[in-house]
């Protein structure tokens, strides 16, 4: 099963239930080499699900001292596509390796 790293609204139970139809299982992990910025969300459906106008977005820094804490969730291939639908067009999905050594997908700013 693929892993999906959440550092923001995908950790919310309401967002998980509305996006995937279930609560996700995962473990805390750390992503190195990125910083967080805030992105204003205008998509009405994402605003409704998250209840937040501003969402965090990852920006590559290349500095290993920059670390983002989050949760690495186990998801299905179909759920990855559902997550793609949830994330607005300002994000793109890439695969990377986490501090734990596990591989997983992250959403970064375009």
Strand and helix layout:
Elements: E1 3-6, H1 13-20, E2 25-32, E3 34-40, H2 44-50, E4 54-60, E5 67-74, H3 77-86, E6 91-97, E7 103-109
Antiparallel strand pairs: 1-5, 2-5, 3-4, 6-7
Protein name: Gamma-glutamyl cyclotransferase, AIG2-like
InterPro entries: AIG2-like_dom, GGCT-like, GGCT-like_sf
Keywords: Transferase
Keywords:
single chain; 110 residues; alpha+beta; Hypothetical upf0131 protein ytfp; three-stranded antiparallel beta sheet; two-stranded antiparallel sheet; 7 strands; globular
Fold and architecture overview:
The chain has a single domain (3-109), classed as Hypothetical upf0131 protein ytfp, CATH 3.10.490.10. Helix content is 23%, strand content 44%. The protein is built from 3 helices and 7 strands; from the N terminus they run βαββαββαββ. A 3-stranded antiparallel sheet has the order 1-5-2, with no helix packed on it. The chain starts with a strand and ends with a strand. The mean pLDDT is 93.
Which structural class do you get from the secondary structure elements?
alpha+beta
How many structural units, i.e. domains? Answer: 1
Strand content: 35-45%
Helix/strand order: EHEEHEEHEE
Number of helices: 3
The low-pLDDT segments are none
Strand neighbour order, sheet with most strands: 1-5-2
Estimate the helix proportion, in percent. 10-25%
CATH architecture, by name, is: Roll
Spatial extent as radius of gyration: 13 Å
**Structure summary, number of beta strands:** 7
User: CATH superfamily name?
Assistant: Gamma-glutamyl cyclotransferase-like
Cα(first) to Cα(last) distance is: 26 Å
Shape: globular
CATH topology title: Hypothetical upf0131 protein ytfp
Biggest beta sheet summary: 3 strands, antiparallel
Average pLDDT figure: 93
- CATH first level: Alpha Beta
Protein name: Gamma-glutamyl cyclotransferase, AIG2-like
Keywords: Transferase
Pfam family, one: GGACT
Domain Gamma-glutamylcyclotransferase AIG2-like: 4-98
